Amino acid sequence: MNNDNLKRNLTSGNQWVRLIYMVLFAVCLQVAAWLLMAVVILQFLFSIINGKPNDNLRRFGDQLSSYVYQAIQFLIYNSDEKPFPFSEWPESDVEDLSGYEGAEEVSAEVVAAETIRDKERAEDEAEDAIILGNSAAEQREKPELVEESADDADKPVDKN
């Protein structure tokens, strides 16, 4: 980079105006962080009291997270489009909230998934035992037999 380019970049009004916008959006991000924390706390309280989260807070949280994303994209020069208030407030991607599962349903799915995995693991062990000709219980009781046979495979065979 030569001195002429550097001088032109330093005297360019566009870079200094962008710096002002960047400071503004950095402050907006700090405010947004506090708002997001408030949404998280309020959603938790709604969930405890009503047994389900508040749909309006879900939409607002989705919009706020989209705004944060847009502001960060502007700050790191991935976008030249200035976020709100210089453009429209982001719309929520969450249109239909009827498919949302509550905490009880999610935990029931996790338990069911763990139970299914345990059953599949037991079935796999039984299949392995059938293939090897030993029961799974024998495999667990006598692991040294498996280790010895593996060691014997490395030893030279005496043909006499």
Structure commentary:
- It is a single chain.
- With 160 residues, the chain is mainly α.
- It has two domains: 100 residues; 53 residues, no CATH class.
- It is built from six helices and no strands.
- α2 packs antiparallel against α3.
- The chain is elongated and about 80 Å long.
- The N and C termini lie far apart (82 Å).
Short note summarizing the structure:
The chain is mainly alpha-helical and 160 residues long. The protein contains 6 helices and no strands. It folds into 2 domains: 100 residues; 53 residues, no CATH class.
Whole-number total of structural domains: 2
What is the first-to-last residue Cα distance? 82 Å
User: How would you state the average pLDDT, rounded?
Assistant: 76
Low-confidence stretches: none
Largest sheet: none
Backbone CA Rg:
31 Å
How much of the sequence lies in strands comes to under 5%
The topology string of helices and strands comes to: HHHHHH
Helix content estimate: over 70%
Helix and strand content put the structural class at mainly alpha
Number of beta-strand segments: 0
Give the helix tally.
6
**Gross geometry:** elongated
Topology of helices and strands:
Elements: H1 3-11, H2 13-50, H3 55-75, H4 103-132, H5 136-141, H6 143-154
Q: Which key phrases capture this entry?
A:
single chain, mainly alpha, 2 domains, 160 residues
